[in-house]
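Just scan my protein:

——
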Amino acid sequence: MNQEEILKTLNRIFVEVFDDKDIVINTATTASDIVAWDSLNHLHLINNIEKHFKIKIKAAEAQEFNNVGEICEIILNKI
């Protein structure tokens, strides 16, 4: 799986978690770009990512994400 495939999958996860079919993410997308991306939804997002990709993201790692590109990198490193 490459970054482009991960990004497409992440987009589907974002649509589901944030219940917004119009969301389109890219590697530069940050929490400030998505109105509903608060701390609680961040936890839901991480949980869904872990389930889908069958990985475990440490709390410290999840807190350090600055953008979607960093999420893609951690997924690539763990799969």
